Amino acid sequence: MKPIYILNGPNLNRLGKREPEIYGTTTLAEVEAWCREAAGKRPVEFRQTNSEEKLIDWVHEAIDEGAGIIINPAAFTFTSLALLDALKMFRGPIIEFHISNVHRREPIYHRSYVSMTATTVMAGLGATGYPIAVRALELLIQENKR
């Protein structure tokens, strides 16, 4: 069974400490545990980086090894054409995930490059939305959606 990749971008390693009024107090370690539980028997590659290069390398790995991707690209959502190009090569389902509702925030957060290729977008559910995204991704994989 191919794994799902849950990829997290810059500053998400600071979850629980960073702007709790926006992102809550849940840590990334707690999110990872929830995702693994939600995935059941499906293997999970759960990763976080502050590096655009590393994030793109992990998308390349998922192209070869993964069944689906949940990606919270954080600031790279709004800046990275390179990340968009990498994600466009992935043939399985992609969920773009954001803890906050980016559309209720400043205008700079309203234009996502990742949305141009994502199968679906989830935003505003808080950190507790991650396991919901895992279950949704499993359904998309079973339905062979892209």
UniProtKB/TrEMBL annotation:
Family matches, as InterPro entries: DHquinase_II, DHquinase_II_CS, DHquinase_II_sf
Transition state stabilizer (site feature) positions: 18
NCBIfam families recorded: PRK05395.1-2, PRK05395.1-3, PRK05395.1-4
Subunit architecture: Homododecamer.
Active site: 23, 98
PROSITE patterns the record matches: DEHYDROQUINASE_II
SUPFAM superfamilies per UniProt: Type II 3-dehydroquinate dehydratase
Keywords in alphabetical order: Amino-acid biosynthesis, Aromatic amino acid biosynthesis, Lyase
Stated name of the protein: 3-dehydroquinate dehydratase
Pathway it works in: Metabolic intermediate biosynthesis; chorismate biosynthesis; chorismate from D-erythrose 4-phosphate and phosphoenolpyruvate: step 3/7
Organism: Neorhizobium turbinariae
The keyword Lyase belongs to this UniProt entry's keyword annotation: yes
Pfam families to which the protein is assigned, alphabetical: DHquinase_II
Reactions accelerated catalytically: 3-dehydroquinate = 3-dehydroshikimate + H2O
